Amino acid sequence: GLLDAKFKAKGRRYYGAIADPNTLSNTQVQTLLKTEFGAITPENSLKWDATEPSRGSFNFGNGDQTVNFATSNGRLVRGHTLVWHSQLPGWVSSITDKATLTTVLQNHVTTLVSRYRGKIYAWDVVNEIFDDSGNFRQSVFYKVLGETFVDIAFKAARAADPAAKLYINDYNLDGPGNKIDQLLALVNRLKSRGIPIDGIGSQAHLILGQVGGVQAQLVRLGATGLEVALTELDIRIPKDVTSAKLSQQQNDYATVTRACLAVSNCVGITVWGVSDRNSWVDSTFPTYDSPLLFDDNFAKKPAYNGVDGALN
Ligand code: G3I
């Protein structure tokens, strides 16, 4: 792909985007994935509610379709995500004893990671485990098992696919504060007790004109010696969208691209959508719009030129 090839020429591994059967059904999405992007993250199909809706009963239809599209087109895959408090079926959140939850967690991680062994570049093993104050989120995993749930998940993932890079992934790591401090402290504890962690994902769901902090925090993440990546990049525009705002977005995308290039172990960038017509922003933030590189009609936006320009 074009962006991907230019990014690789800078010594990076991939410039990626998301997909799933609902967006792959559009041939223009498929074409852009093939021409521009080198990695695919399944948007929803590998999450717990999609893969293990009831205990021990697994469903890989959509996950297989997305992973097969990626691998048959020579694209890398980021597996997203093994352990997350959201899109988590009720049967998991109602578990109250350690032994059961440990078994359930190990079985879920082992089953998913084994199924795609050899096909996944990196797994988001744990996702969004800190709240915005930097405390552990009070998920069923933390409440029942404490911090150990992280150890259990990473160890099971490593055992099931020793070649996959294992990531911790979170949002709001774009500015200083207790959240990134606590995430870094946890990474250090994991390393010191020998837990197999390879990477830190910074989601980077950003707002127009507020991207100046990305590089400094990425430098801190990279200083752990682990690989780092921007895993869910988008830059949403407060309505109404104007041409001035679209050129600000171009600058912002360039700034974020350069932030990754400034950190030698920033291996990849994934944008959280191909076209503005398929972004989570529309439903979650009704007063924002147009966060991606291609518009509703799949035409390149100024934002695309922002990335491209930073890579030239
Ligand atoms: O699958 C059901 C379908 O059966 C039902 O008919 C339909 C009706 O609403 O909902 C479908 O589920 C939706 C699901 O996406 C699959 O399309 C959910 O409503 C919807 O809430 C869900 O949104 C996803 C969101 O995660 C859930 O938290 C977004 O597509 C996805 O882009 C978003 O991605 C997250 C990352 O995983 C983690 N970081 C934040 C990021 C943005 O929220």
Automatic annotation (TrEMBL):
<keyword id="KW-0732">Signal</keyword>
<protein>
    <recommendedName>
        <fullName>Beta-xylanase</fullName>
        <ecNumber>3.2.1.8</ecNumber>
    </recommendedName>
</protein>
<dbReference type="InterPro" id="IPR017853">
    <property type="entry name" value="GH"/>
</dbReference>
<keyword id="KW-0326">Glycosidase</keyword>
<keyword id="KW-0378">Hydrolase</keyword>
<dbReference type="InterPro" id="IPR001000">
    <property type="entry name" value="GH10_dom"/>
</dbReference>
<comment type="similarity">
    <text>Belongs to the glycosyl hydrolase 10 (cellulase F) family.</text>
</comment>
<keyword id="KW-0119">Carbohydrate metabolism</keyword>
<keyword id="KW-0624">Polysaccharide degradation</keyword>
<dbReference type="InterPro" id="IPR044846">
    <property type="entry name" value="GH10"/>
</dbReference>
<dbReference type="Pfam" id="PF00331">
    <property type="entry name" value="Glyco_hydro_10"/>
</dbReference>
<feature type="domain" description="GH10">
    <location>
        <begin position="18"/>
        <end position="310"/>
    </location>
</feature>
